[in-house]
């Protein structure tokens, strides 16, 4: 009988504590609404890709420049890309950014005449893009940069561009 009582009591305590752990705990911050503990605020302080996509035959990659002056930008071209006509780099106002552009079969290198300042944004446009008929409808552009005063590339991210079949 003692074993049955202790077993039942143990099961009751275990069930009660497991239920208490599963209930979300809420707390109140000063001058704000109630939040659950599972919410996390992120403060991104490095260059990162904010958007990418297609406008007609132009592929674009938008970047936010945070936390550092950016001297160079390198973009690995996807294997599905056959060719493109040109490259245009603009700031958040649409003004073209002066830069030197070097293109090889697998890579696009952009060296800015003046480093791009932190807390700004830029857009790289590849115009007249033509891709191989085989190879898939997803193009991945690996983007890296070089900070002023440092040697070596800093990974920024991968821009994904989905091509929708016409039809």
Distance between the termini: 76 Å
Shape summary: globular
Largest sheet: 5 strands, antiparallel
Number of distinct beta strands:
13
Elements, N to C (H/E)? HEEEEEEEEEEEEE
Strand content: over 45%
- Low-confidence parts, pLDDT < 50 over ≥5 residues? 25-35
Question: Structural class, judged by helices and strands?
Answer: mainly beta
The overall average pLDDT, rounded, is 82
- Helical content (DSSP H or I, runs of 4+): 10-25%
The whole-angstrom Rg is 26 Å
Number of helices: 1
As laid out across the biggest beta sheet, the strand order is 8-9-5-12-13
Give structural attributes.
13% helix; mainly beta; five-stranded antiparallel β-sheet; four-stranded antiparallel β-sheet; 167 residues; globular
